[in-house]
Amino acid sequence: MSSNKNKVLIVGGTGYLGQHLLQGFSENQETSQYALAFTHYTSPPPQPLLDAIPQALPFHVDLRTGDGFDAISQKFGHPDIVVNCAALSVPRACEMDPAGAMSINVPSALVKWMSSFNNSNALLIHLSTDQVYEGTKSFYKEEDETLPVNVYGKSKVAAEQFIRTSCSNFTILRSSIIYGPQTVSPVPKSLPIQWIDSVLAKGETIQFFYDEYRCPVYVKDLVHIIQALSIRWISEGKPMQLVVNIGGPARVSRVQMAEAVAHVGGHKTSLINPVSALSVDRGVNSPSDISMDITKLIQTVGISPITFTDGVRLTLEC
Predict the structure, then answer these.
(1) β-bridge pairing 252-253 and 213-214
(2) Nearest 5°: CA angle at 44, between 42 and 49?
(3) Which pLDDT score is estimated for 119?
(4) How confident is the model at residue 140, as a pLDDT?
(5) Spatial separation of the C-alpha atoms in residues 27 and 52, rounded to whole Å
(6) How close are the terminal C-alpha atoms of the chain, in Å?
(7) Are 297 and 291 in contact (CB under 8 A)?
(8) Tens of pLDDT along 279-311?
């Protein structure tokens, strides 16, 4: 591997955001100059992904133990940027296995490995969540208190605290729901917009919550944000300690999300049955309003995410 190329490692490269990042970094004129590698946990990595981005080197890594990181050091070298989008992110699964959630979501093995680098000030871009907030008001700011209501949120707060105390060069991105087109190698989980579209297309009435609010973010906007932060670090070399909310510009309920999909997809809005989130037991507490203020994102990174309706349109066009 040529040593003069800047190196980027995507941790969790076979997941939804990870695949979009690999695609985005390989297609962007500036970031396509970087050497790319990614980690995966399920073996082997999906062939369609390897075929689509042949220059990205795959590495099998267990984030709980750190097994596999040494192979990256030997075959790829120490990355200049690590983007960590690996997580146990299904709240109900976290609730059933809190210890497992902590061992995967708090990147202790990853940070320990990064601290062994000769260039130990590599930038860590870590994906956190809007679920670090309690959900009792609207438009949370980064300096607001983090009071998560479930194990998933608690594990992500623990990760943030660990990174703040263990790293000198990091950006923590508190992301809302990420939506957009399917990945090169389709991910097993259902994608929010595609799922709503397919349900409404069947002509069946379905329940959506009217009292749960988020700021969904279009996946390609998130990729552009991560690229912009990466380019800044490579060009300026100034360590950062940033925590930034990542969401779209609008606070939308689940009902409003469904209505937007219905309008774009040409489905009947009468199929959408608004119900309270309190009427359904999902086996896990869910915050009711974790909409976020994204002023800091726009001012710091200089990117304004697109509207939800525009994002839905782009998603359904694919």
Answers:
(1) antiparallel
(2) 100
(3) 66
(4) 98
(5) 11
(6) 35
(7) no
(8) 988 889 999 999 999 999 999 999 999 999 999
